[in-house]
Amino acid sequence: MVDILHRVGVVAPIDEVYNAVATAEGIAGWWTNDTVGTSAVGEKLVLRFGDVGGFDLEVLELDPAGHVRWRVVDGPAEWIGTEIDWRFDRRGEYTIVLFGHHGWQEPVEFMHHCSTKWASFLLSLKEFAETGRGRPAPNDLRIGDWH
Amino acid sequence: MVDILHRVGVVAPIDEVYNAVATAEGIAGWWTNDTVGTSAVGEKLVLRFGDVGGFDLEVLELDPAGHVRWRVVDGPAEWIGTEIDWRFDRRGEYTIVLFGHHGWQEPVEFMHHCSTKWASFLLSLKEFAETGRGRPAPNDLRIGDWH
Q1: What are the two backbone dihedrals, phi and then psi, of residue B145, each rounded to the nearest 5 degrees?
Q2: Which of B9, B91, B112 has the CB atom closest to A143's CB atom?
Q3: By the 8 A CB rule, do A134 and A26 touch?
Q4: How far apart are CA A37 and CA B58, in angstroms?
Q5: Environment class of residue A92 by beta-carbon count within 10 Å: exposed (0-12), middle (13-18) or buried (19+)?
Q6: pLDDT values of chain A reduced to their tens digit, one per residue, 147 residues
Q7: Does B44 contact A at CB distance below 8 Å?
Q8: In chain A, positions 56-85, which contact chain B (CB-CB < 8 Å)?
Q9: Is-above-0.90 flag for pTM?
């Protein structure tokens, strides 16, 4: 099993960064504007990216002290059953975001793509929390032929 | 052992992307403008990032058909002994870059940071190969408190 790991520092209060990840409205500001569902433990968030499909995420953990965790219950085959983990920690003027997308079966080419794409969405999250304006799909950064 | 993996698609010929990685002049266009040394198998590339330090890379492989490999011989303790692998492949209008930074001992917080930072440098490489203008240090994107 292999993991995608990332870290960014956001110049914004921890609760603002937490809310950007812990609510459907927040997620719509940096990941995809087509985000619906209920962000509560045991409930589902439903994210779509136009014709490309999307992800259904079961919320496993929501701790405003600095932890959010999801399980992917629908989406691309490689994603199903993987877990996405967010930790938020305050250091100086930064809220540090430690991100992990755990449980990939194999380091396939699609995982390489998702790793880079996650980085671009984390930078979108940073921008969203700092300025109020992220780059959610369909206005996300195109990083290659797989978008 | 854990790996950092990334993938970008660059709208440029494969030899241009290869040269951006396989020569010191190329690297200076997207990673750090303070890149010197000799890009030949068995020789060393020396990259510096101002006061922050840098990396010495031994060139292990240089294949214009689409493969470059380095071993880190000096730099941060976590980097020493790790290997950095580049594969280039043509698909449609894109040169696909498959990147791996292999052999990290532990998934430490610094590795999370380096994973995101690598993504931003790969996007800088993409920009450099497509437009002639990347974002090498000291003009690289600041992603957090660790720069």
Answers
A1: -70, -25
A2: B9
A3: no
A4: 51
A5: exposed
A6: 789 999 999 999 999 999 999 999 999 999 999 999 999 999 999 999 998 899 999 999 999 999 999 999 999 999 999 999 999 999 999 999 999 999 999 999 999 999 999 999 999 999 999 999 999 999 999 999 998
A7: no
A8: none
A9: yes
Question: Could you report the predicted ipTM of this complex, rounded to two decimals?
Answer: 0.96
Most B CBs within 10 Å, among A2, A4, A8, to test the B interface: A8
Q: How far apart are CA A130 and CA A124, in angstroms?
A: 10
Q: Coil, strand or helix: which one is A131?
A: helix
Cis amide leading into A138 (omega within 30) = yes
> What's the CA gap between B147 and B49, in Å, rounded?
11
Helix (H) or strand (E) holding B127: helix B109-131
Q: List the domains of chain B with CATH numbers.
A: 2-131 (3.30.530.20)
Q: How far apart are alpha carbons B22 and B12 in whole angstroms?
A: 15
Cβ B72 vs Cβ B56: under 8 Å: yes
**∠ CA A36-A42-A46, rounded to 5°:** 20
C-alpha to C-alpha distance for A106 and B10, rounded to whole angstroms: 24
